[in-house]
Amino acid sequence: MTTDTASDETRVDLDIDATTTIPQLTAGAPATLVAREVSAWFGNHQVLDNVDLTMAAGQVTALIGPSGCGKSTFLRILNRMHELVPGASLAGEILLDGQDIYDLDRRPIESRRRIGMVFQKANPFPTMSVHDNVLAGLRLTGRKTPGKNGAAELVERSLRSAGLWEEVKARLGTPGSSLSGGQQQRLCIARALAVRPDVLLMDEPCSALDPTSTRRVEETIRSIAGEVTVVIVTHNMQQAQRVSDNCAFFLAAEGQPGYIVEQGPTGELFENPRDERTSDYVNGRFG
Amino acid sequence: MTSTIDSGVAGPPPLKDDKLFADQDFRTSRRTSAAERPRVRTGGVSTELVTHVASAGLGALALVWLVYERLVPVTGTIGFWLVWYAVFIVMLAAVSATTLDRMAVTDRVVGALVTTAGMVMVSALAGIVVFTFVRGKGALSHSNFFHETMAYYGPDAGLDKGGIYAAMVGTFEMVAISMVISVPLGIATAVYLSEVRGRIARVVRVVVEAMTAVPTIVAGLFIYSMLIIELGQERSGFAASLALSVSMIPVVTTTAEVVLRLVPNGLREASLALGTTQWQTVRRVVLPTARPGLVTAVLLGVARIIGETSPVLLVAGSTNELNYDPFHGPQISLPLFVFTGMRQPLDVAISRAFGAGIVLLTLVVIFFALARIIGGRAPGHTSRRQQRRFARNARALTTTPGEQP
Ligand SMILES: Nc1ncnc2c1ncn2[C@@H]1O[C@H](COP(=O)(O)OP(=O)(O)O)[C@@H](O)[C@H]1O
Ligand SMILES: [Mg+2]
User: Whose CA is nearest to atom 25 of ligand 1?
Assistant: First the structure.
């Protein structure tokens, strides 16, 4: 710890990239997530139809498409948040390293602990300090933080991974809600990373952020890829190109459920899309 | 640049280099510091407004006086001031119209009306407090009023004998027991209504809302017939607390439910997405975030029952004896003391009743103040206590061994 901080002092002025070499963060290897024939409904209204998608371990998968085509719904199905909406239902399977997270004998909270989520609107807990927000995943679930120093190390490591450590290390005790919008969002990322998930889901994490904060979040995503599987919904084509390895293009006709038009390596999907609609969308001709 | 010219100091050289502004000495020596500079007035009362209001007020007074005293044979103070107010508003509109356009006149008239409403509220409250105080201060000036009871004195005893001690004990115990019953039950029901939802929850909500409207005397009758007649229990403060809880629980529940619903759903989802159970989310995230509002809910519940008289009279009876035991034998409460005192055609008894009224008012004020201090304000708003806790955390965390240079 002491040697660590000694090097902090010298790192302060360096570019953030210098701080992004992080010790191994996740517990095990990042997991592969496979969606098989997923359909979803809100009441009788079907919003997703037969979606098949493989999100490769340790890679960043971007979900793109116009609003209302079911990207958020799909993302929330991936960690069993969809079922929290009254009247919501789904069909199909979500395999986390080969095991269906919707198996009857798997409890939702087990899946959610392995598959973390960052929301569109930053939502740090207002009654907790920055420090406690990072540890919330452990404390709220009644798990022990690893001793006093272990907790401090976990907080530092998570905040470093989220590219926030240098900015908040002097005020870990202030309320999480006292940070700026961009910092709050990175705090939420740190909070999600602190429980060492195998997969991290992000729903338009930068849509409310300024360009600088957006750049930092993108750097964060790139730096944690490899240690955790990332699935990100974004409306920003450049962002999808910058951060993702693979890309899936969702589309929904008026009043019809959404489906995947095309998926594949990001470079290919943007450079020479197979489908005309993909090409129109990625070139900004609709959506 | 204009500011330096205004302050009478030679302006700085034309801006060529950004470094000039980075230089602290330059700023502090050449420019008046921000604290000294006069602020632009953006609000406040203009002299024109004062003239308009004063002239309309005096004009209306003169006119109405003329009509009342010289022209029509009617009298009556209340009527006089009501007519004066109506004429005042009309005149204010007329006077304002000499300098303002229609919209601004409407704005001013509406402003006058709502200001009046506010002032009527404040003066009504002030009136009640001052009136009670004036009538009751005779009793309050004797210290025996606070620590003696009426057990050995008749209602005609002088103010230097007897007091409200038994009533204070009764009120304190009844309110405390009611809180012990109502706060957990009320908040638990509110959690059920806001977090579980579903069809049964809707039925429960309707029942709770209907309960808010149950008159306290009916609640008292219910407890009286159940506990005292059917089960043969004796009258007691505890029985009164049960009757009071019937009124308090729905107030706590409905207010707490509103407060819990104000907790952003994003916080619940953030917590659940970390793998918490619903109960963990409620206990560690929803309730702490709503805490200030929950304190308000409890406060409103107490405010509802602290002045209740009829159920206490019915099920706790009334006694002049001091009775510390809320489970056995009749007890008296402050509102009941006021009620019995006011029925005596004796100046001393009435004075004591007003004195008890003041004590009751003071208790309510203390309660509101406490709730404010403990509770802070809106949900998610950090109270002063929380801020202190955060500050303590900050100090503790920044001085961990690892942080020492
Ligand atoms: N809570 C909900 N209740 C009912 N319908 C919903 C709800 N959330 C989303 N929908 C509907 O589901 C469809 C897909 O929404 P969403 O997944 O949010 O799309 P996207 O994230 O791609 O913009 C939309 O038609 C939307 O109206
Ligand atoms: Mg969305």
Answer: A68
